[in-house]
Amino acid sequence: MAGERETDVVIVGAALAGLVAGAILTRHGKRVVLLDQADTVGGRGGAVERPGGWWIDFGHRDGHDVGDCQVVWHHGAEAAREAGVEVALRPVEAPLRLHRFPEGTVLEGGGWGPEAFLATARDFFECPDDGLEELAATVRRLASASAEEVEAAIPEGLGVWLPARVRHPGVRRALLLMATVIFHPHPEEASVGRLMQFFQTPRRGPFIPDDDEAGGMQGLMEPWARAIRGGGGEIALGWKPVEIVVEGGAVRGAVAVDRTNLVREVRAPVVITTYPVWENFDLIDERSFPADFVAAARELRRHRADLVGWQAGLRRLPSIRATGRPEHHAGWNRLLWGPERVYRGGWQITSMTSRRAAPPGKHLLSLVMARFFRGGSTAGQPWTAARAELDQAIEYLGRFYAGFDGCVEWSAYQYATAPQSMSWAWAPVRRHALTVPTIRGLFLAGSTLEAPAAIVDLAAYAGLEAARRVLVGG
Prior knowledge:
Blueprint (H helix, E strand, L loop, with lengths): L3 E3 L2 E4 L3 H12 L4 E5 L10 E4 L3 E4 L17 H9 L5 E3 L4 E6 L3 E6 L3 H6 L12 H12 L3 H7 L4 H8 L3 H14 L9 H9 L6 E3 L8 H13 L3 E4 L2 E8 L2 E8 L5 E5 L2 E4 L17 H11 L3 E10 L4 E2 L11 E6 L4 E8 L13 E10 L10 H18 E2 L1 H4 E9 L25 E3 L10 H17 L3
Parallel strand pairs: 1-13, 2-3, 2-14, 3-10, 7-17, 14-22
Antiparallel strand pairs: 4-5, 6-9, 7-8, 11-12, 12-13, 15-19, 15-21, 16-20, 17-18, 18-19
Helix pairs in contact: 1-2, 1-9, 1-13, 2-13, 4-7, 5-8, 6-7
């Protein structure tokens, strides 16, 4: 019958985890159908090409999952080997520059991880000299915590944990600034266990994808899609999943509709979904899941964030006003506002490492600010308030760079609704496993998975683990 098909595995959502799983499974001879409502792969984790050859990160409006502008790549490298996929990545040699604004203090030479943070403890994190020894001991204790200690510390917030365990107030402030710079606007709410995991996560990178055909983070997505198609798998774009079929406690496939509302049913004994966990309740009756699983998913949903930003196409690299030197920093520029050092996001010039991010000879600047929702709210601050904060950052760019306005060929604000930034990465909440005991054949390979991995690498881990379990029979 038209609109029906049988296959081995259905993948719901063309986010990175689904692409990774699909590439591995097709290489091992599995029949794979991937369904996504967007018209390009990668979801919100990829980039979309704007007319003229500009690739805008944070992905397709109708896509699922979340995004970033850089990637650490440990599990991803392992998945690429298993899939036989070549992913072109360029290392960011200078990962972190810190700006205190509006005063304009600029700190160079920062990096990620415990030892890099300690190396800049005095300047970046304003730790007083008489607290440096206690800070080093505390950071190394966090970095060496056992799995049991990490698990126990996940529900604890830094705001409660620090006064009980750190004597020096300057050290407590330095640790809160570390969480701020990593990317938390409310560092006292950040999970201690998650900070331990951050310091312990295997680190290869950061990198920016540098694909021959796709710019920005889309360069991380397309190699897997090529492998799926080359291996005989099907990527069905423009098909919106509306149901994951569950019968007798096991999945039987998925149903999707196209833009004309025509229905397509794909029958399979395995479904891999890449959606954030709570979005699966739109596809499967939540009564099919254990009650405690549903409660935990709804709690996790409270820890969300949207993203506001400003994208600028540049005619040339701007010059730094203080030195007269053209911009040379390809990593993140983190922004901390005022004496309280409030997180205000940051910017990078993606085209300095991704050749296709901008047309030849031009550059793309991406300024982004994640806004964490609080208290279970389903909406962030109004756009006008968000734009006012963005405009403060844009005005600062005009002071940091000489003749900046003359460099800008075009610019536009950007707004990506929640869930966009992976705020639950820092939430004092335990996340879900890859499978649930009440639904056989279902794999929850979204970015809300509990996994020993950093943000984008987590998606690669999820796809890799889902594929491995399918190949060994569940």
